[in-house]
Amino acid sequence: MQDLLGDDPSAIAAFCRGTRLPPNATLLPGLPYSFEGEHPQTPAILDRLNALSVDERRRLARCVEPCGDLIGALADFYHRHLAFFDLQNTAGLVGAGGTAHEAYLTRFQALLRRYQQALLDLHAFERQGGGRGAHRLELQARVCAPRTTS
């Protein structure tokens, strides 16, 4: 634990409170931990992640790893544009509703492709050293800008 948190007793205490671990615990691979020990939702989030199977946690980690620090932007996109969808029940749409839904999905897929490209461009820019210039701001704006039309 000291390798991650150093010798700061308050940081170690906050980490232990959030993760419900004793200060001398060994951190095991494949389990979720949080540096946001004081955040009120930390225990609920860790409980939810711990309830996943080992295979599900491994797949989730592989999905998150390529995004690095951009995972926050991806989560924001999900909450703004996807969280309200009932994707499990979309197969029940038929007739005119199905046609309208198909047209909406086509627009949504275009939006998703634009967002994916914006994330890839920003990620590539940051891998090349990034910087603080106008180009970075433009790339970040492309990632964060809400777009509802195709």
Measured on Cα atoms, how large is the radius of gyration? 20 Å
Helical proportion? Answer: 55-70%
**Secondary structure category:** mainly alpha
Oligomeric nature of the chains? single chain
Basic shape: globular
Number of DSSP helices? 7
Count the E strands.
0
Largest sheet: none
Strand content: under 5%
Mean pLDDT: 75
Overall domain count: 2
Order of helices and strands: HHHHHHH
End-to-end Cα distance, whole Å, is 48 Å
Spans of at least 5 consecutive residues whose pLDDT stays below 50 are none
Question: What does this protein structure show overall?
Answer:
There is one protein chain. With 150 residues, the protein is mostly helical. It has two domains: 1-51, no CATH class; 67-150. The chain is 61% helix and 0% strand. It has helices at 2-5, 9-19, 42-51, 54-64, 71-82, 95-127, 134-144. The longest helix has 33 residues, at 95-127. The model has no long low-confidence stretch (mean pLDDT 75).
Can you give me a brief rundown of this structure?
With 150 residues, this protein is mostly helical.
Helices and strands in order, then pairings?
Layout: H1 2-5, H2 9-19, H3 42-51, H4 54-64, H5 71-82, H6 95-127, H7 134-144
Helix pairs in contact: 6-7
Summarize this structure as a short list of keywords or feature phrases:
single chain, about 150 residues, mainly alpha, 2 domains, about 0% strand, globular
